[in-house]
TrEMBL record:
It is an enzyme of class 3 (hydrolase). Its EC number is 3.1.-.-. Residues 21-219 form the Metallo-beta-lactamase domain. Keywords: Cytoplasm, Exonuclease, Hydrolase, Metal-binding, Nuclease, RNA-binding, Zinc. PANTHER family: RIBONUCLEASE J. Pfam families: Lactamase_B, RMMBL, RNase_J_b_CASP, RNase_J_C. One of its GO terms (molecular function) is hydrolase activity. It comes from Bradyrhizobium ottawaense. The keyword Metal-binding applies. This is Ribonuclease J.
Length: 556
């Protein structure tokens, strides 16, 4: 009798962190499996710890090795942390991609805006539809979220059905798109669900996430009450919020001016897909200065403090078309993603210094999360009745709280896992059965680097302690042909006693060379290493830090 096929799951990103989502499912025997990937996202670099790194992506070396067995990549929705790595990483995989209309259209627009983006075909699947991806039959189940056409995936296989929730919430009154499809989720629960792989982002928060409809009402009230110009910043992908801002502007007899390329792109795609039907046309930034102050509303990118986005430039007073003055208002219709607090705080402070009134979710209900709180997680478990629950999409605390909630809700098996764990879902007892390679790739300018990259490590060290450069010209007899040249970057000019560091390092270089035997002086590598050690030691003695030191030895 043939052995039943084994269904496995491995997160390669998005577990123990929020962002960089990539999950893989495998079906078959341990020797030969067909694979399917779900989402391929990014997280964002942190200038303090990763200077010069814009994006962080999951290591896909395992999928590259299994490329001939990779049946496809399925997208739950079009947020950057779920689809932002495709342009860079798809050429290494070249597998089919499946997405619904809005996600496919937004991806196409993103490719068009990117210089030298590869031609990447996407197969469009209708919302609520099904598609065969190798041996996986994937059903797109609509869920409410902060972007159009978010979907949970019911992955039907010979070993059972898995519900991969993606990002979701329960919003009975969404202002755009369908609510979470409770009826279909309950039906799945009755049919039998082997495993629920679920969003844990808000697992520490009690109750339920408020509705988008409540935010829309608040924004209308705030815009109507405003006296001067109004600017609203939100995530560009939140089309429901864009629609709410448009409604508020209309109610207050204001024109909407769209500021920022990402916002313009989403508005264009949303109009093409019918999500802004009946919404007034928006104006371009050059019109802003010609409209009366009480007749304009600027819809801006930059809610996360991005330095090149519209709001940062407005706050720094260097935007070519948009200015704000005393008595104007800025509504932050967003939450600050952890890690961005400093950048957002800087923008707020600059605006306050200009006399601008700031409105955030601390003062009014101008933002709601797109993720489920604890009562919603309980509802999902009650509808789906999974045999196994694996928390994903969260840091360690979120995963742990989701797991505790699931156990208390009576889920028979709950597994907390890490990126790279290979988990058997069925048939039989589930559990971690191995490991697959996982890690991070850094987008450094136009280059993708391994997280162990020397360039990134050295840049971090240079950011902390500067760098010393020494050039030495030696004769073939092992004598100095000229004075050494010393260049110190990012190192203080003088020590505590007021002695110039240039002089201290120069003296250390000369005395080190003169103290070496002739044979060692004639060996450029040995000479360079001796000088490097001496320079680092003297700087450490007078400063308490050991900068990297680069020594160039020239024989003349």
């Amino acid at each position: 009798m043939a052995k039943p096929e084994e269904l496995v799951f491995a997160p390669l990103g998005g577990v123990g962190e929020i962002g960089m989502n990539l999950s893989i499912y495998g079906l078959g025997s341990r020797q030969q499996r067909a694979w399917m990937a779900v989402d391929l996202g990014v997280s964002f670099g942190d200038e303090e710890h990763l200077p010069g790194i814009d994006l962080i992506m999951p290591d896909i070396s395992f999928l590259e090795k299994e490329r001939k067995n990779l049946m496809g990549l399925v997208l739950t929705h079009a947020h950057e942390d779920h689809f932002g790595a495709i342009i860079d990483l798809w050429p290494k995989l070249k597998c089919p991609i499946y997405a619904t209309q809005f996600s496919a259209a937004l991806f196409e627009a993103k490719c068009a805006a990117e210089r030298n983006a590869p031609k990447i075909p996407v197969t469009v699947v209708p919302s609520g539809g099904r598609v065969d991806v190798g041996p996986f039959n994937v059903e797109f189940i609509p869920v409410a979220h902060s972007i159009p056409e978010a979907h949970a995936l019911a992955i039907h296989t010979s070993a059972g059905t898995v519900l991969h929730t993606g990002d979701w919430k329960i919003d009975p009154t969404p202002t755009l798109g369908a609510p979470t499809d409770e009826k279909r989720l309950r039906e799945l629960g009755e049919e039998g669900v082997l495993a629920l792989i679920g969003d844990s982002t808000n697992a520490v928060r009690d109750g339920r996430s408020p509705s988008e409809a409540e935010v829309a009402r608040t924004i209308i009230d705030l815009v109507k009450a405003a006296k001067g110009r109004v600017a609203v910043t939100t995530f560009a992908s939140n089309v429901a919020r864009i629609k709410a801002v448009a409604a508020a502007a209309k109610a207050a007899d204001r024109e909407v001016v769209v500021v920022g390329r990402a916002m313009e792109r989403v508005v264009q795609v949303a109009r093409e897909c019918g999500y802004l039907d009946g919404v007034q046309n928006f104006r371009s930034p050059e019109v802003y200065g010609h409209l009366p102050q009480d007749k304009v509303l600027a819809l801006c990118t930059g809610s996360q403090g991005e330095p090149r986005a519209a709001l940062a430039r407005i706050a720094n007073d260097d935007h070519p078309e948009i200015t704000l003055n005393r008595g104007d208002s800025v509504i932050f219709s967003s939450r600050t993603i952890p890690g961005n607090e400093k950048a957002v705080g800087s923008i707020i402070n600059n605006l306050v210094l200009q006399g601008v009134e700031i409105i955030t979710d601390r003062d009014h209900l101008v933002h709601v999360s797109g993720h489920p709180r604890r009562d919603e997680l309980r509802d999902m478990i009650g509808w789906v009745k999974p045999q196994l629950l694996i928390p994903v999409h969260g840091e360690a605390l979120h995963l742990n709280e989701h797991a505790k909630l699931a156990r208390a809700a009576g889920v028979p098996r709950v597994l907390v896992v890490r990126n790279g764990d290979l988990i058997k879902l069925g048939p039989g007892d589930p559990g971690i059965i191995g490991e697959v390679p996982s890690g991070r790739l850094y987008k450094d300018g136009t280059i993708l680097e391994d997280s162990r990259s020397r360039a990134v490590v050295e840049r971090r060290r240079m950011a902390f302690s500067g760098c010393a450069f020494v050039a030495i010209a030696m004769t073939e007899q092992g004598e100095l042909a000229d004075d050494p040249e010393v260049d110190l970057v990012g190192i203080p000019d003088k020590n505590r006693a007021g002695e110039p560091f240039d002089d201290l390092v120069f003296d250390a270089v000369v005395s080190t060379i003169e103290g070496l035997p002739k044979a060692r002086r004639r060996d450029p590598d040995a000479l360079g290493e001796s000088v490097r050690r001496a320079v680092r030691a003297v700087i450490n003695e007078h400063w308490g830090k050991k900068p990297p030191c680069l020594v160039h030895v020239l024989t003349v």
